[in-house]
Amino acid sequence: MPRRSTDLYICDIYESIRIIVEDAVNLSFNDFKNIKNKRDAIFFRLMIIGEAVNHLPKLKSQFEINFHEILRKYEYMK
After folding, report:
1. What is the dihedral of CA 8, 25, 35, 44, to 10 degrees?
2. How far is it, in rounded angstroms, from Cα 38 to Cα 22?
3. What is the pLDDT of residue 54?
4. Are 47 and 67 a contacting pair, CB within 8 Å?
5. Average pLDDT of the segment spanning 29-37
6. How far is it, in rounded angstroms, from Cα 15 to Cα 41?
7. pTM > 0.85
């Protein structure tokens, strides 16, 4: 299988950020905790961002994002 281009990974990141912002724009933290579908959708998009960043070494080295910590917090909220 051919490797995806950098542009496609950046598009994945951009699209995921756009969807997260759209889903969370008027969402209080309590709503975020209590509405499982919204919470799951946002964490799914964070996982997509994490996977895309892992395929972009130059981008990955510039950010200190601990996706394992994010997922651990997600499990705590379930």
Report:
1. 10
2. 11
3. 80
4. yes
5. 90
6. 13
7. no
